[in-house]
Structures are given as structure tokens and as C-alpha cells.
Write a structure and sequence with these properties.
The complex is a heterodimer of chains A (624) and B (347). Chain A has 624 residues and is of the alpha/beta class. Chain A folds into four domains: 232 residues, Pyruvate-ferredoxin oxidoreductase, PFOR, domain III (Pyruvate-ferredoxin Oxidoreductase, domain 3, 3-Layer(aba) Sandwich), CATH 3.40.920; 187 residues, Rossmann fold (3-Layer(aba) Sandwich); 66 residues, no CATH class; 100 residues, Rossmann fold (3-Layer(aba) Sandwich). Chain A has 20 helices and 22 strands. In chain A, α7 packs antiparallel against α8. Chain B is built from eleven helices and 14 strands. In chain B, strands 2-1-3-4-6-5-13-7 form an eight-stranded mixed sheet, with helices on both faces. Chain B is an alpha/beta fold and 347 residues long. Chain B is globular, with a radius of gyration of 23 Å. Chain B is 30% helix and 19% strand. In chain B, β5, α6 and β6 form a beta-alpha-beta unit. The chains are: A alpha/beta (624), B alpha/beta (347). Chains A and B meet through α1, β9, α9, α11 and α12 of A and β1, β2, α2, α4 and α10 of B. β17 of chain A pairs parallel with β2 of chain B. Chain A: This is 2-oxoglutarate ferredoxin oxidoreductase subunit alpha. Chain A: Keywords: Oxidoreductase.
């Protein structure tokens, strides 16, 4: 590998920073996701802690140059622990006028803007909706920021003139110029990306060569022009020792499913129907068919969950993955699964609702639906993941509960952690706890009779695979007679069965660890109670506040139904309870109803996660 | 010659062995009784152990069938039996899976699963008890009710065209399409055997009388005085013949079917359309002997196996793809999957 850092301009000072947020922003076709991911991978290899947040437009091919077509990728990397992708960015890369318009509001005061001036011509300014004759690069509106105006398109073309590539392919390389420039700015090596390019274009060496040439040109541009007077260096973070990988929530969910199959010995069957932002789980899992995994792209959301139920009935572990609208369609089948009492995993990657809502934006607004969104009384366990990597743990825990308790389990993630990434110190397979599966093969009743709804001391009925000799029986959605499972309409039996189904779910709390604060003390002036993807923001803020001397704690819920047994007692130890949620207040209703505690809600419904600043202000306002 | 030990010699099951301990609760005179009886009659001949048979049903009178068979079974939700059966079969291809459905369950609320099951060709036997009415909800018109049907929800007559289930199944690429009727036990037994033998989705439409809400809907095809003129029973390799004295036949004029009287037309049995189960063009025309006319003439309603095709089943293709992939790529360890291909180490 050639030495790339031999020709530094020694006079450019390098400033040490403990964390930096960069926003890559451009048209959907500008390759900003790839650019951001490459920068992220390199930062990760260098030992930075980090968190990323891609933001896609809902339209796949929105009109080029418009604000509707802006695609963004945000990376927050640092030498300290990083739990969020950052509220505001230090550096904004804006490949066109629309990108600048959309993303300027969240650039820090005095932040750095790197623009491709070719994206600010008359046509692009028009498309971005700037008034006739107004160019933000020229009219002084960006005074106060450090603006680098670079004709990236022209430099890319010049750099690749004389190659055999067509103009379209040449223009596509322009993101590499920007990436090279950023590597120079942040004193990061290009090797990882060069390796990546060589692998990606192994069959098209001319494209590999062009991309690498442009990447280096970007680096050299920073190094040789006088435009840049400072560089930044973010030292490696003090992360726990170990081997890491970068992972998104959807990847972690898919890998969790593979692991659950291996740990239980059950064949994994995913029935799914494409839906944003959950489809990537189906894509990812379908790569692991060699590992006792079957993936089934069903004809619709209902068929997806029904096929999963069929697979569980036949002795596999049925899973269905979806997002809000798909959940609505699946509810009848999920209700049946609570009646059948068979294992089933339902993963809901929440997005903004109601109806089609905001497909590419995040929200936590399906909690009540997960809890109660079925006709009749159909309780089931609900678990929520708190970060991209935590999706893995969530799937394993959900699988354990589904199998041990013969019940459907809903796992809640959301668009924010599903697409966002973080470094993950992944476990060794040998350290993962096996999941015990107990197929019944012997009759359990008097006179050699088999009673499909005879429960054990935990309230759990036996699981019998079709194919098991002598235990033929019928199950279904009609109310069952206790123990025999025969159709029964009599009144006392229905009340008994309703209670037995609910008690079984309540008893799961016996196997859930008691909850402890993530940060802060077990009693005090105030606790911030969170669930799901708000974890990163709450953790960041509460730790800061504790460092600043405030008496505040952070408790984060993973098990929402049933709650950990000591939750009520723990919460009673604080004077005030604040519950931030990306909805109009759903967990807060559960907490108030169950524990009669006067919790305070804090809602955000903008399709975006909480910023640390707004959360901190809210806590300070209440703690006073 | 194989040696059969005492242990191996399993006594052949009887129809009674397939009856569950549940009381059968259909209305007196319901055509479902006959279907249940024919199923229980032919099953012992299949030699499939009871524990390897699964019945999946949705909602409706027909769906109760599951409770009456001493096999494994799931009485599920409205319209979804085909989707559940897909999952059962994908998980365990060795099970003999039977879906029992009705015209509302299969063709209205379950229409989407109906067509996709056939397109994907899971090896499932799909029985649709067609009585052209909603029975369990007490008498509304169904997607197979004839236009003009006066029912509870259509006091002035239905304004909808009915589905022709066979035509729909062929359009959905079903690999086995057959029709039988409740009042012809022998014919139904034959069709059930053929459905069992077929590898792939076997679609069997069974005309079934609902004595309460749609009595006598199919009597034209089952009762002595009309059956011979109104119905035609097709057999592979045999000419299409019907009529009171078996004097009528169907021949092709190009691709147009024509009814001929062999006594008067000058055509003989040698000129007739020979039924060929492997010919999809002919099957499509046969299926349209429903409400279509050809040259202004209505044709007798056909019964029998219209179409049969050998095509790889979904579950076997899935299995083979996995096997091929595993052979080519090997099975990565869980550790390899956990680490992925890009890692870094913090020392």
C-alpha cells in the first residue's frame, strides 16, 4: 500500500476535537449514503466511537435538484462515548442548492460548509426554490460560516479526462473527491476506502481506478490549495477492549434471528412483505439461507404473518417483520396466535403514522397498538430495542420468551435505530445462552389422552409438532375448553381462559431481570424514564447533568409487557418522573395507569429523534 | 422380496380411524357430510400415517371440517388458510397438507392467498366447497352466486358477475384443476385420490348443496332427470360425450367447441375432442363451459380433472436452493456471521 501522507503541507495546523458531526447532503443520486458510510468505516477503524443516521427521501427518484430529493447521512464520531448522531453538525457537505437549503438550519453557528458550486447554477437554484437571482453562496447569507466553494464536478471531470469512461460515469465519481477532501481535513487515511473500491469494482477495474484517482485528487486538493487553513483530529475513543464491527438496527435484527435459530436449534422462518423501513431485515436475513433460515416474501402482510404462524405450528420459529401499516393488517392473525398459544416473533420497525404517514421518518407511536391493538383481550409480551446493536439482544430475548412461554412477542424498533449504525462489540457465539425448546411427544392426560391446553406451573401449554405419533389434535381461533382445547362456548370457561391467557403473560416477569438505573442513583429528585430509541439522547444528557452536579437518573425500559417487577417501586423513589417519547404520550399512560404515579410527559412528533439540547432544556426546566 | 417384520406390519386404517371424537354439527342434509365421508373413505388408501396429515381451514361452514378429522389441524381465520398452509409446508415439506375452504373464504376474503398459493405451487390440496352462498353468516350472496341472486343482502338481486373458480385457478397457474360434486360419491373419491397423487397445488372445486340457504343450486348436474344433459364427465384420453343416450359429443371446429349429435350430424366418436389433462389450451376452453356460450350455445358443465401439470413445488425448490447454496458456499459459523467481514480491534 502506498504512503499517502508523505506530502503534507506542514504549515496547516491540526486542531484536536473530542467529537465532530458531519452531515453529507446531496441529491439522491449523488452517492451521499456511500460517502458517509465510507467515512464512518474509516473513523471506526481508527477507534472512534460513533453513531450514524441516514435520512432518505420517501421518493426513490424525486426530481433531481429539488428539496424533495435530498438524501442525507449524518455521522457523529468522537474520542468520547457517543450515543446519538448529534443534534447539529460541525461540517455540512452540500452537493447542491437544495441540500444546503434543507440542511443549513441544523449547522452549528460558525460551522464549515463544503459546497459543490456546480450544484448552485441557475437551474439548481431554481429547482431548490431560491428566488430569481438569489444565490446563497454569493449574497452574504452564509456570513458567519466557513464556506468552501469548490467546483467538484469540474475538478472530477478534469481529473478523469482522458480515461475511457463516459461523462455519466465520470460525474458519478464526484462524491469520491469530497470524501478524499474530508479524509484530508480530518487526517484520516484513504486505505480502507481504496480497499473497498477495489472490492466493489473488482470486475470493472476502470471504474475502480477512476474512483481511486478522484479520491486522491480530493485529498491532494486539500493538501495543495491554500483554501484550507485548519485540519481536525479526533483521537481514538477509550472504548472497552475487544473486536468491533459497525452495525445497523436492521442488520442486528437479522443476525439476531440467525442466532436465535442456532441457539434454539429451531428452523427460522421469516414471512415478510416489503415495507419501509423494515425491508432491510428481509434482505439481510435472506443472505443466511445456509444457516437453517427460510425467508418467504409473501403476497401481502397478512400472508406474511400467517405463513409464519404456519411455520411455528409445524415446529419452526416463525417470524414476521414489518412497519406500522403492516402491523395494522396483521392484527387479526396476531390475535389468533395469542389464542393458539404458539411461538411467534413480530418485529415492528416503527415509522411516522397514522396511515401511510411518514414512511422514511421515525416515531414511537405504535406502543399502544403493540399493547392493545387486537380485538378481544389478547395480551402478549412487548419488548423494545434501545439502539442499533440492542436489536440483537432484543431478538434473542423475544425468541426466548416466545419459545419458553408459547406466545407471540412483539419487538419494537424504529426507523431511527433500524437505519442508524453504531460500533458493536459483538459477542462470541459460545457466550450466548442457549434457548430451551421442549417439544411434547407423550400424552399428558388421563388414559393416555393428550390435552393440548393443559398448562404447566408457569401456565404454558405443550408444543406438539404435526408428525408426532398419537398426539393428533385440532387447535383454532374459537374459544377453547380449558385443558382439552375443544371448542367451548360456555360462559365461565371463557372467563377462566381469558384469565389464564393473561396470567401466563404476567408470569413472564418472573424471568425478567429487575430494572436498575442506566445512570444516576436509585432514588433522587428526578428520573428520566425512556423506552426504545430515545436511549442515546437521554443517556447523553443525563450523564452530562450528573457531571454538572444535578440529582437526576436515567431508567430505560426494554420490557414493556410485562414490566420488570420492581419498576413501580423504583419509580416511587424519585420526586419527579419525566417520560420523553416520540409520540403524544403512550408509555406515560401505561405508567400512570399501572402505578398511579404523576409522571410528566415530553412529546416530540416531528419524525426526528430528540436532540440532546431540547431534552436537556426540558429536564432543567422540570428539575428546578 | 422385502421382509416384513411383525413390528413393521401396521394394520391398514379404516374410515372410522379418521373420524375425531367431536360431534359433527352441520345442518341436516348439508353436502358437507358427503364430502367428509368421501375424505374419510379414501384416506386409508393413501397409506399416510394420521400424524403426518394436517388440515388447515379458515372460517365458514366448510372450515369446521378440521375438527372432524382425527389428524393434526388448525381452524384459523377467515380467508387465510392458504397462507398458513404455505408456512406449514415450507417448514415441513413431508406433511400431507389439506386446506378446506368455501366459496366466500377462498374466493372473496381469501382471494389473494388463493391465487398466490397456486402460482407458487406449494404441494397442498385445496378443497373449495362451493355452495354459491354464505351459509355461516346466514345467507348472503357469495362471489360465486349467479348474477341476479336474491339473498339477504341483495333483496333486489345481485348485480355482480360470479367467479368461475376453475378459470381463475388456471389463470393463477394452478398445476391441478378439478371439479366434483357432493352427490356423486364415487366421482369425488376419484378426484380426491387424484388430488392427493398430484405433487403441487391441487385445486378441487366441490359443488356442495346448502339445503338451508341455497337448496338445489346444483341439482341440474346431480339429479337423474337432468344430469345427463347438463353435465359432462371428462376423463383423460376419452372423448367428450354426454346426453341422455350418450348421443352427444363435443368436437373442435378450429379452436371453437361445437356440440354435435352423433346420430344426426354425420360425426362419429372418432371426430370428438379427446380430453387431454396436459393441454392447457383445451383446459382453458373446458373451464369456460360455465356461463360462456360458444356460437350462441351453452355447454354442459364439466366435472373431472381438467388440467394437471408437473412443476417443481415451492417448498422443494426452496429446499434445493438451500442445499445447492450450502454445498457451494458452506455453512458459515455463527461467529463468522456475528463478526461480519469488517471488524476492528480496540486494544
Amino acid at each position: 500500500m502506498e504512503i499517502l501522507e508523505s506530502n503534507f503541507r506542514p504549515n496547516v495546523p491540526i486542531i484536536e476535537a473530542d467529537s465532530i458531526v458531519i452531515r453529507f447532503s446531496g441529491d439522491s443520486g449523488d452517492g451521499m449514503q456511500l460517502t458517509g458510510n465510507q467515512f464512518t468505516d474509516t473513523a471506526a477503524y481508527l477507534g472512534n466511537d460513533l453513531s450514524t443516521f441516514p435520512e432518505f427521501p420517501a421518493e426513490i427518484r424525486a426530481p433531481i435538484g429539488t428539496t424533495a430529493g435530498v438524501s442525507g447521512f449524518q455521522v457523529h464520531f468522537g474520542s468520547k462515548e457517543i450515543f446519538t448522531p448529534g443534534d447539529e453538525y460541525d461540517v455540512l457537505v452540500a452537493m447542491n442548492a437544495a441540500a444546503l437549503k434543507v440542511d443549513l438550519p441544523r449547522l452549528k453557528k460558525g460551522g464549515v460548509i463544503i459546497t459543490n458550486t456546480a450544484g448552485f447554477d441557475k437551474k439548481n437554484l431554481n429547482l431548490a426554490g431560491f428566488a430569481e437571482g438569489v444565490n446563497p453562496l454569493e449574497n452574504g447569507s452564509l456570513d458567519g460560516y466557513t464556506v468552501h466553494k469548490i467546483d467538484v464536478t469540474r475538478f472530477t471531470k478534469e481529473c478523469l479526462s482522458g480515461t475511457s469512461l463516459g461523462m455519466k460515469d465520470i460525474e458519478r465519481c464526484k462524491n469520491m473527491f469530497v470524501l478524499g477532501l474530508l479524509f484530508w481535513m480530518f487526517d484520516e487515511p484513504m486505505e480502507y476506502t481504496i480497499t473497498f473500491i477495489n472490492e466493489k469494482f473488482a470486475k470493472k477495474p476502470e471504474l475502480a481506478e477512476a474512483n481511486i484517482k478522484t479520491l486522491k485528487a480530493g485529498w491532494n486538493f486539500g493538501d495543495h490549495t491554500e483554501m484550507f487553513t485548519t485540519r481536525f483530529k479526533v483521537a481514538a475513543a477509550k472504548l472497552p477492549k475487544g473486536v468491533y464491527r459497525n452495525i445497523s438496527g436492521n442488520q442486528a435484527t437479522a443476525i439476531g434471528l440467525v442466532a436465535a435459530s442456532e441457539l434454539s436449534g429451531l428452523a427460522m422462518f421469516l414471512g415478510s412483505y416489503p415495507i419501509t423501513p423494515a425491508s432491510d431485515i428481509l434482505h439481510e436475513l435472506s443472505k443466511y439461507k445456509t444457516n437453517n433460515v427460510k425467508t418467504f416474501q409473501a403476497e401481502d402482510e397478512i400472508a406474511a404473518v400467517c405463513a409464519a404462524i404456519g411455520a411455528s405450528y409445524a415446529g419452526g420459529l416463525g417470524v414476521t417483520t414489518t412497519s406500522g401499516p403492516g402491523m395494522s393488517l396483521k392484527t387479526e392473525a396476531i390475535g389468533m396466535a395469542t389464542m393458539l398459544e404458539i411461538p411467534l416473533l413480530i418485529v415492528n420497525v416503527q415509522r411516522g403514522g397514522p396511515s401511510t404517514g411518514l414512511p422514511t421518518k421515525t416515531e414511537q407511536s405504535d406502543l399502544m397498538m403493540a399493547m392493545y391493538g387486537r380485538h378481544g383481550e389478547a395480551p402478549l409480551p412487548v419488548i423494545a430495542a434501545s439502539s442499533p446493536a440492542d436489536c440483537f439482544n432484543t431478538i434473542l430475548e423475544a425468541s426466548r420468551i416466545a419459545i419458553e412461554y408459547m406466545t407471540p412477542v412483539i419487538c419494537l424498533t424504529d426507523g431511527y435505530i433500524a437505519n442508524g449504525t453504531e460500533p458493536w462489540r459483538f459477542p462470541a457465539a459460545a457466550d450466548l445462552a442457549p434457548i430451551k425448546v421442549n417439544f411434547t411427544t407423550e400424552a399428558n392426560g388421563p388414559d393416555g389422552k393428550f390435552l393440548p391446553y393443559k398448562r404447566d406451573e408457569r401456565g404454558v401449554r405443550p408444543w406438539v409438532k404435526p408428525g408426532t405419533k398419537g398426539l393428533m389434535h385440532r387447535i383454532g381461533g374459537l374459544e377453547k375448553q380449558n385443558e382439552t382445547g375443544n371448542v367451548a362456548y360456555d360462559a365461565p370457561n371463557h372467563e377462566l381462559m381469558t384469565r389464564l391467557r393473561a396470567e401466563k403473560i404476567e408470569k413472564i416477569a418472573d424471568t425478567i431481570p429487575l430494572i436498575k438505573p442506566d445512570s444516576g442513583n436509585e432514588t433522587g429528585k428526578m428520573v428520566v424514564l425512556g423506552w426504545g430509541s430515545t436511549s442515546g439522547a437521554i443517556k447523553t444528557v443525563v450523564r452530562e447533568l450528573i457531571d454538572e452536579g444535578h440529582d437526576v437518573a436515567h431508567v430505560h425500559l426494554h420490557h414493556i409487557n410485562p414490566f420488570p417487577k420492581n419498576l413501580g417501586e423504583l419509580l416511587k423513589g424519585y420526586d419527579k418522573i419525566l417520560i420523553p417519547e416520540m409520540n403524544s404520550g403512550q408509555l406515560i399512560n401505561l405508567i400512570r395507569a399501572k402505578y398511579l404515579l404523576p409522571a410528566i410527559g415530553y412529546s416530540k412528533m416531528q419524525g426526528l429523534p430528540f436532540t440532546t439540547v431540547e431534552l436537556k432544556n426540558k429536564i432543567l426546566e422540570i428539575i428546578k | 422380496m422385502s421382509i416384513v417384520t411383525e413390528q413393521d406390519a401396521v394394520p391398514k386404517l379404516t374410515a372410522k380411524d379418521f373420524a375425531s371424537n367431536q360431534e359433527v354439527k352441520w345442518c341436516p342434509g348439508c353436502g358437507d357430510y358427503s364430502i367428509l365421508k368421501q375424505v374419510q373413505t379414501v384416506f386409508p388408501d393413501f397409506g399416510v400415517p394420521k400424524e403426518d396429515i394436517v388440515f388447515i381451514s379458515g372460517i365458514g361452514c366448510a372450515a369446521r371440517f378440521t375438527y372432524y378429522m382425527d389428524t393434526y389441524g388448525m381452524h384459523s381465520i377467515h380467508g387465510r388458510a392458504a397462507a398458513i398452509a404455505s408456512g406449514v409446508k415450507a417448514q415441513n415439506p413431508d406433511l400431507s397438507v389439506w386446506v378446506v375452504s368455501g366459496d366466500g373464504d377462498a374466493l372473496s376474503i381469501g382471494g389473494n392467498h388463493f391465487i398466490h398459493l397456486m402460482r407458487k405451487n406449494f404441494n397442498v390440496n385445496y378443497l373449495v366447497f362451493n355452495n354459491q352462498i354464505y351459509g355461516l353468516t346466514k345467507g348472503q350472496y357469495s362471489p360465486t352466486s349467479e348474477k341476479g341472486k336474491v339473498a339477504k343482502s341483495t333483496p333486489f338481486g345481485s348485480i355482480e358477475e360470479p367467479f368461475n373458480p376453475s378459470e381463475l385457478a388456471l389463470g393463477a397457474k394452478s398445476t391441478f384443476v378439478a371439479r366434483s360434486l357432493d352427490r356423486d360419491p364415487k366421482h369425488m373419491q376419484m378426484v380426491l385420490r387424484r388430488a392427493h397423487e398430484h405433487v403441487g397445488t391441487s385445486f378441487v372445486e366441490i359443488y356442495q348443496n346448502c339445503p338451508v340457504f341455497n337448496d338445489a343450486a346444483f341439482f341440474a348436474f346431480s339429479e337423474k332427470d337432468t344430469k345427463k344433459e347438463q353435465a359432462i364427465f371428462v376423463e383423460h384420453g376419452k372423448p367428450l360425450i354426454f346426453g341422455n343416450a350418450e348421443e352427444k359429443g363435443i368436437r373442435f371446429d378450429g379452436l371453437t367447441p361445437v356440440i354435435v349429435d352423433m346420430n344426426t350430424s354425420g360425426y362419429s366418436v372418432n371426430d370428438l375432442w379427446i380430453h387431454d389433462e396436459g393441454d392447457k389450451t383445451k383446459a382453458n376452453i373446458l373451464a369456460r363451459f360455465f356461463d360462456s356460450t360458444f356460437n350462441g350455445e351453452y355447454f354442459p358443465r364439466p366435472f373431472g380433472v381438467f388440467y394437471q401439470e408437473d412443476r417443481s413445488t415451492y417448498e422443494i425448490s426452496m429446499k434445493e436452493q438451500i442445499e445447492e447454496l450450502t454445498e457451494r458456499k458452506g455453512r458459515p459459523s455463527l461467529d463468522a456471521i456475528l463478526s461480519g467481514n469488517k471488524t476492528w480491534t480496540i486494544l
